[in-house]
Design brief:
The protein is α/β, with parallel strands linked by helices. It is 39% helix and 14% strand.
Length: 246
């Protein structure tokens, strides 16, 4: 009796082959698994074979992956995508003078994404404040993908001691918030030594914190909604700093 193989297994092996640039050993495993699908009477399998044929080819392997993940509604992770460049063992650049200050961020996934963003820009430090979760949180760890190991991460206390110390050391504290009299990030000239502060996804930053910042900037919006997801907003704001100082 022919050995059975699941669509999900084929998808995993095909993705693995893509991630290893069709290396013979990885491609052979994917091809062998795909060939076993011929013996399945599953409707989805028959639809797959009808669309792509009985043989796995280098030219159709990526489309087969997309077909299977769509058909099975698989939750695709970043690590499942075809990676064209690999992570470095160590950054070639020194950390820049930008600092992220995350205040009462509710979502662990947002926190992890911002930590990963901080690694991408190789910033000096990430400061977690209020009830913002630390990298030990499962959701943070899942989204940061190990970036927490590459960045200095500190925690501030309720008195904002760490933030006040940075101000005394000459850092310019910039809040990203949709409040009256804030300046468009497109027009703002960032100081080189900047602390970028973002707040809670729904409530934003409290007035007590806004009272001690040096500047407030916003992302201009041209549709109906008045703001972006906090990770998207921080990404855009950080890139404006990078354009000016990197």
């Amino acid at each position: 009796m022919p050995k059975q193989v699941s669509l999900k297994k084929v998808w995993h092996l095909c993705n693995n082959s893509l991630n290893h640039n069709h290396e013979p050993s990885h491609f052979a495993k994917a091809k062998e698994a795909y060939a076993l699908l011929r013996h399945s009477q599953n409707t989805l399998v028959q639809s797959l074979l009808s669309k792509f044929g009985n043989d796995l080819l280098e030219s159709n392997i990526e489309n087969i992956c997309v077909f299977i993940e769509h058909s099975l509604q698989l939750p695709v992770k970043d690590s499942d995508f075809n990676i064209t460049t690999r992570d470095l063992q160590k950054s070639k650049n020194d950390p820049c003078s930008l600092i992220f200050y995350l205040y009462n961020i509710r979502s662990g996934f947002n926190i992890g994404s911002m930590i990963r963003l901080s690694d991408g820009f190789n910033i000096r430090e990430v400061i977690l404040s209020g009830y913002t979760a630390t990298p030990e949180n499962m959701h943070v760890k899942r989204t940061s993908l190990g970036a927490e190991n590459n960045i200095v991460i500190n925690k501030d206390d309720d008195d904002l001691t760490h933030l006040k110390r940075l101000k005394n050391d000459g850092y310019h504290v910039v809040a990203l918030e949709t409040v009256k009299n804030s300046e468009s990030v497109l027009d703002y000239k960032f100081p080189e030594r900047t602390v970028l502060i973002v707040g809670n996804e729904r409530k934003g930053l409290p007035q007590t914190l806004l009272n001690i910042v040096d500047s407030v900037v916003h992302i201009p919006m041209f549709g109906v909604k008045n703001s972006l997801n906090v990770v998207s907003a921080l990404s855009m704001c950080s890139y404006e700093w990078v354009k000016q100082w990197r």
